[in-house]
Write a structure and sequence with these properties.
By secondary structure, the chain is of the alpha/beta class. It has a single domain, classed as Rossmann fold (3-Layer(aba) Sandwich), CATH 3.40.50.1820. Helix 1 runs antiparallel to helix 9, helix 4 packs across helix 5 and helix 6 packs across helix 7. Helix 12 links the parallel strand 10 and strand 11. It is globular, with a radius of gyration of 20 Å. The structure holds 2-acetamido-2-deoxy-beta-D-glucopyranose (NAG) (4 copies). The site of one 2-acetamido-2-deoxy-beta-D-glucopyranose has 3 residues, from helix 4.
Length: 420
Amino acid sequence: MVFPNLMNSRVLILCVLVLATRNYQACAFRNYKTWTPSNPNNPKHDETSFRGLCADSITTQGYKCQEFEVITKDGYILSIQRIPEGRSELSSNVTKKETVVIQHGIMMDGSSWFMNSPSQNLPMILADDGFDVWITNTRGSKYSRNHTSLDPSNEKYWDWSWDELVSDEMPAIIDFVFNQTGQKINYLGHSLGTLVALVSLSEGNWINQVKSVALLSPIAYLKNMKTKLGVMSANYVYGKKFTPRDITEFDPKGQRVLDFVDGICNHYGLNCNNLFSALTGENCCLDEAAFVRFMKVEPQPTSNKNVIHIAHIFLSDSLAKFDYGRPHLNRFHYGQPKPPIYDLSNIPNDIPIFMSYGGHDALSDPVDVNKLLSIHFQNHDKGKLSVQFIEEYAHADYMMAVNANELVYKNVSSFFKQKF
Ligand SMILES: *[C@@H]1O[C@H](CO)[C@@H](O)[C@H](O)[C@H]1NC(C)=O
Ligand SMILES: *[C@@H]1O[C@H](CO)[C@@H](O)[C@H](O)[C@H]1NC(C)=O
Ligand SMILES: *[C@@H]1O[C@H](CO)[C@@H](O)[C@H](O)[C@H]1NC(C)=O
Ligand SMILES: *[C@@H]1O[C@H](CO)[C@@H](O)[C@H](O)[C@H]1NC(C)=O
């Protein structure tokens, strides 16, 4: 759950060293330090300057890129980017193309996909492979902090959890992309982006708009997550009554969160020197230079309520709307004393789904993924469910492993091209 004090430079250095050593053994860094992003318009790469993801990470690599604003029902102004074609295409005929929407995980943003070279990162690989690619940025993250009436410094801005990502944010994105392209969408989610997809499908959203769904590091059950820090943080939430004071920003680089993590580490005697691995599992195949770039821009802020709601998944071993902790408050929000349950058995059996999960993933544990599969996908139409298991992969490998193209993205691309 808590990515934080990675940002402390002492910790970062240790972390990179530990990762590098492990990676070297496990994966031999195939493309070790061979690529540095060119950034001609912004040589100093001033992190406070705001230019949009297209200018920061995409056009610099020779791709066309368009920025759009999508306004959600609850007023958030999201920035989303489109890579309409690959680098080698001469004329665009985008209306004919298959559309892909790429949704990152918690405390990430769209830029988390661009740490590696164009031949190694998912959006550019899909664009070069003929897809019309759309990249999302969740509310509260760097490129999506505006709102029609609220400022992020106002606590009310942070009154949401993944419930609202399902009910307000994702429908706005899917409607917008569907209207722009006139094509049914292939959705790809990583981590929390998979939970949003599974719950959206179970709520009957996306019918007639989404053609197929790819889930990398799927999350629906968390009971077996191995990350000690996550488990401790969740246990810390346990038994605490939710109060309006908990409606606030969760900024993993902010002092409040750093103090919280230090407190947890000290209190439980955890060795928090290698937090990144402690949190995501031992990633086999990251490039050290890409990881350093990653640490410059991630992790991104989310809402405290979102983090608490994820802790609830772990603590209750079930998927329900946000639990306000008191019957009268739940009654106020839902008309019943307990929050309504999301029933993943309602996911249509004929929706094409590709899932890939890793043996070393500390968040999306194989036991939990197998539980998801055995409880909710037993009766899924044969031929509409494709499951891949990669023993050596952990959580972040799906986002930026140097061999993710060979192992995962090629399969995703051919899955999205299927006619079903
Ligand atoms: C673009 O696609 C449409 C619909 O398939 C087709 O009729 C048209 O000829 C294409 N245009 C170009 C320039 O390829
Ligand atoms: C944020 O949104 C408001 C309302 O639409 C708009 O007036 C303002 O210019 C936006 N601010 C930025 C920094 O884009
Ligand atoms: C998409 O089109 C539908 C039907 O024309 C319209 O109701 C809806 O508001 C549009 N959504 C967006 C986000 O433009
Ligand atoms: C992934 O691709 C490889 C190589 O093409 C293939 O052998 C394998 O069956 C694919 N796996 C899935 C789950 O699609």
